[in-house]
């Protein structure tokens, strides 16, 4: 089966966990618009993001949803009903998948691994063989027994996809299987409760790519041609997993209801019903205070609104987000080949004011494509902080021949070409929109005229990402399960052909960056990877191919009666089966 990249490549950028080598290019077929999905996929990460719990001194008691044996999770993004982790593409679908299906490993809030379907694993000294020991007595939600064959089936299904096949590409025999030279992936074998996976080489993101894959049942999907999976609406809406919750009702555009699975191998969930409810972004506070929802991300609310909710008795959790905001230059354009211009634009933007006044201090500035507190993030002293310096911006602009010779306030070059650009901005975040409008005013002060175009996600996807029709654009990028930056920054991940998209949207290319990205992929040693990624960050920081704006804190408000809620950056629903409600 070949999944349509049109549904995924843009979504993966704003809500992704692509961590693998490969940099595929895929032609557009159909573009779906996206309201930015909440990225709540469990996975390997960075050692960051344990939730910081905040409670008000208020004695008020928050209202709770209708029953004492249910929890209602609010989301502004409607699930698509594609509840199969091999073909799911929306973050809200992935969130449901995370509690319906199981994976070999799970991620704790502190960034370390723990067993899930696998109770243990060992990596060989040469880092080319990984052996998992599986838990006993795992049941599928239809009563069938789970086996290692289900894991092998899932890996082979992933190998047949366009978007995710690189997750298993380093497993011995995968290429022969993809090309039809073999009926199975030879590097995967099972013996009782032991699963052995052999790799062609040491590959750093392996545990992130394979260890956190949701496992699907062979007895349900095995007899259906994979190219037909996305058409099996009944199976997709009513999935069979082995996780703590089972879907009992899906209402398109409204909600998903799940009930605790009695035979979950980790013990039946303490809360009987989990509901995901679609909530209008403008009605978050009202939905909470009325008791219609118990948990929701509130980072788009103003600080005073968040404070009012805390005063009303709700508990706030602040965690490091895995998403950074940026403005990208189209490096295909000759004008943006000038590093002086790119650096000047960065110096001209008062990013600290954006953080203080628009983000309301609820975040952190960044200067490279690695999020704060991650093990892969370079020391601040290794990077230029691009502190607001309009005088430096003007110096760089004039050094490149951009001067205002006619006194109209807009700089031009010797050919009379004006320094005028349009920044295209996705409309899914008011905070980002306001930041970009402020950027316009900053650039005006140094003689750069900017028009801001706020557009639907689907328009941005098709026109900018596939057709490369932009000068500058503002968007967000999610830091994936593994810090591997190959898909975003390796030269092979760029596409200059109209109608062909890849993840390096701005088409930045640098041989030194490529070399160090590849070094970081070739070892599982974290110190060696950190050294390689520091060099990547330093070069990108120097070249300034995009303006890195900020990482906004992720703030989750929940009912104070909920016990056991322990969100992390990449695993918001960690240990959901152990949550409980005060009686």
TrEMBL record:
GO terms for cellular component: ATP-binding cassette (ABC) transporter complex; periplasmic space. Residues 50-73 are annotated as: Disordered. The keyword Transcription does not apply. One of its GO terms (molecular function) is peptide transmembrane transporter activity. Residues 115-494 form the Solute-binding protein family domain. Residues 54-67 have a biased composition (Basic and acidic residues). Keywords: Signal, Transport. Gene3D superfamilies: Dipeptide-binding Protein, Domain 1, Dipeptide-binding Protein, Domain 3, Periplasmic binding protein-like II. SUPFAM superfamilies: Periplasmic binding protein-like II (SSF53850). It comes from the Bacteria. GO terms for biological process: peptide transport. Belongs to the bacterial solute-binding protein 5 family. PANTHER family: OLIGOPEPTIDE-BINDING PROTEIN APPA, PERIPLASMIC BINDING COMPONENT OF ABC TRANSPORTER. This is Solute-binding protein family 5 domain-containing protein. It comes from Dorea formicigenerans.
């Amino acid at each position: 089966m070949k999944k349509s990249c049109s549904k995924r490549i843009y979504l993966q950028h704003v809500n992704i966990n692509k961590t693998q080598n490969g940099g595929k290019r895929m032609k557009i077929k159909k573009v779906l618009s996206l309201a930015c999905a909440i990225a709540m996929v469990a996975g390997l990460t960075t050692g960051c993001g344990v939730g910081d719990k905040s409670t008000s001194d208020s004695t008020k008691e928050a209202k709770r949803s209708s029953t004492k044996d249910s929890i209602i999770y609010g989301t502004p993004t409607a699930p698509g009903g594609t509840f199969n982790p091999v073909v799911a593409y929306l973050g809200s679908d992935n969130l449901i998948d995370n509690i319906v299906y199981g994976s070999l490993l799970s991620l704790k809030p502190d960034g370390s691994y723990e067993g899930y379907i696998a109770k243990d694993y060992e990596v060989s000294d040469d880092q080319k063989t990984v052996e998992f020991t599986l838990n006993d007595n795992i049941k599928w939600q239809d009563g069938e027994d789970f086996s290692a064959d289900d894991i092998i089936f899932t890996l082979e299904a992933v190998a047949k996809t366009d978007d995710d096949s690189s997750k298993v590409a380093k497993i011995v025999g995968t290429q022969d299987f993809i090309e039809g030279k073999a009926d199975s992936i030879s590097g995967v074998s099972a013996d009782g409760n032991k699963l052995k996976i052999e790799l062609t080489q040491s590959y750093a993101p392996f545990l992130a790519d394979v260890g956190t894959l949701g496992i699907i049942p062979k007895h349900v999907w095995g007899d259906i041609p994979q190219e037909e999976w996305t058409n099996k609406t009944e199976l997709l809406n009513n999935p069979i997993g082995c996780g703590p919750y089972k879907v009992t009702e899906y209402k398109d555009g409204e909600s998903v209801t799940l009930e605790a699975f009695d035979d979950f191998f980790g013990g039946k969930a303490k809360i009987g019903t989990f509901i995901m409810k679609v909530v209008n972004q403008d009605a978050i506070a009202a939905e909470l205070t009325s008791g219609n929802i118990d948990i929701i991300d509130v980072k788009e609310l103003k600080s005073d609104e968040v404070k009012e909710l805390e005063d009303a008795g709700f508990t706030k959790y602040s965690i490091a987000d895995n998403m950074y905001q940026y403005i990208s230059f189209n490096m295909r354009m000759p004008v943006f080949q000038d590093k002086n211009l790119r650096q000047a634009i960065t110096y001209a933007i008062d990013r600290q004011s954006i953080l203080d006044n628009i983000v309301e201090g609820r975040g952190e500035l960044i200067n490279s494509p690695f999020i704060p507190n991650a093990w892969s993030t370079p020391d601040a002293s290794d990077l230029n902080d691009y502190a607001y310096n309009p005088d430096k911006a003007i110096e760089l602009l004039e050094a490149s021949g951009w001067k205002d010779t006619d006194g109209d306030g807009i700089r031009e070059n010797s050919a009379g070409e004006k320094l005028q650009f349009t920044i295209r901005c996705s409309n899914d975040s008011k905070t980002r929109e306001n930041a970009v409008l402020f950027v316009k005013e900053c650039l005006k002060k140094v003689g750069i005229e900017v028009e801001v175009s706020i557009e639907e996600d689907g328009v941005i996807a098709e026109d900018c990402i596939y057709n490369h029709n932009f000068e500058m654009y503002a968007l967000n990028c999610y830091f994936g399960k593994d810090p591997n930056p190959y898909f975003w920054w390796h030269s092979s991940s760029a596409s200059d052909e109209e109608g062909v998209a890849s993840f390096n949207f701005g088409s930045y290319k640098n041989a030194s960056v490529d070399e160090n990205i590849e070094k970081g992929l070739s070892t599982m040693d974290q110190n060696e990877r950190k050294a390689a990624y520091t060099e990547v960050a330093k070069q990108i920081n120097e070249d300034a191919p995009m303006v890195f704006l900020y990482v906004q804190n992720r703030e989750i408000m929940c009912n104070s009666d909920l016990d056991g809620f322990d969100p992390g950056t990449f695993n918001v629903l960690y240990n959901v089966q152990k949550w409980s409600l005060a009686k």
